[in-house]
Amino acid sequence: MANKTFKLNTGQDIPALGLGTWQSEPGKVREAVAHALKAGYKLIDCAYCYANEEEVGQGLAEAFAAGVRREDIFVVTKVWATYTTRVELGLQKSLEKLGLDYVDLFLVHWPLLMNPEGNDDRFPKLPNGERDIIHSHNHVDTWKQMEKLVGTGKTKAVGVSNYSKRYLEQLLPHATIVPAVNQIENHPALPQQEIVDLCKEKGIHIMAYSPLGSTGGPLFTAEPVVKIAEKHGVKPSAVLLSYHIPRGSTVLAKSVTPERINENLNLVDLDADDVKLLDDYSNKLTAEGKLQRFVYPPFGVDFGFPDKS
Ligand SMILES: NC(=O)C1=CN([C@@H]2O[C@H](COP(=O)(O)OP(=O)(O)OC[C@H]3O[C@@H](n4cnc5c(N)ncnc54)[C@H](OP(=O)(O)O)[C@@H]3O)[C@@H](O)[C@H]2O)C=CC1
Ligand SMILES: O=C[C@H](O)[C@@H](O)[C@@H](O)[C@H](O)C(=O)O
């Protein structure tokens, strides 16, 4: 699975599987990144907001020293919400921390602006404790800045993250460059099919985040996942990661545990019956209004996701 790729609208090949680094603790993430790359992972997903890019960079450097070549891996990072009026600065800061000259893909992490002059670099707050958000900011203006980065050589492609259908429909009429990627939460309990279908139609590749249900893997016990895992003699984690391959999406799995990093490389070919079982499960949750979204930060903004509007 490590070598399977999809094609982006830029012509680049993007690996089907990547290592996530959100909440990867200091003291562990360097080893996780180095271990993953040496084990055959080709994609590392980072973000300025994760506040661990310096250590991720140390892991990259360790892998390069062990013979992994920069041109053979795909590094993704994201502009954080306090930098969406200063995207080149945001990218530059990430590059310096990662110790890289360029990334392969740079994403708008969330479509909004938090106060760049607020009381914190990443999470500025108002006196009442709420996030300090500049509600007058138009996310399309961020995208116009992202488009300019492509000519700088600091990123090979630009894309978005956490864009609903509504937000994409606001963005696309103004886009000179169609986003290469939309990175969204995606798993059988949150298929977000309306976004996946629109992205497919527009040539935007989906990167699926929190495929295990995020911290602790709450989806491991979902009934169809257990059933399919037993049928193939694999762990539920393998079923949840494999779900994305027939969907044509890249999947990001976070782990700082070397054995899990290894086992997450071993995906399975789900057959038509497996896919139907998982789709039926998604449809049932949708019909019952029981979809599960595990990542919804307290921005207090309506991002246009039907399960949260
Ligand atoms: N654009 C965005 O806004 C977002 C992007 N992301 C990206 O997607 C990545 C993945 O999503 P994330 O939310 O981290 O969650 P995941 O769905 O990848 O789940 C991570 C959790 O599962 C555990 N785990 C991993 N593999 C196994 C395994 N084989 N067996 C048992 N447990 C396992 C990890 O534990 P341990 O590490 O202790 O081994 C951790 O607790 C992120 O790290 C980030 O890069 C995620 C959320 C939002
Ligand atoms: O990428 C992962 C998530 O989006 C994460 O960056 C946010 O949830 C952030 O911690 C926040 O609280 O806004």
Automatic annotation (TrEMBL):
Gene3D superfamilies in the cross-refs: NADP-dependent oxidoreductase domain
Q: Which Pfam families match?
A: Aldo_ket_red
Q: Name one GO molecular function term.
A: oxidoreductase activity
Q: Where is the active site?
A: 50 (proton donor)
**Where does the chain bind substrate?**
109
Protein keywords: NADP, Oxidoreductase
Q: InterPro entries, from UniProt?
A: AKR, Aldo/ket_reductase_CS, NAD(P)_OxRdtase_dom_sf, NADP_OxRdtase_dom
Where's the NADP-dependent oxidoreductase domain? 17-280
Lowers pKa of active site Tyr, annotated site positions? 78
Family recorded in the similarity comment: Belongs to the aldo/keto reductase family.
Q: What is this protein called?
A: H/ACA snoRNP pseudouridylase subunit
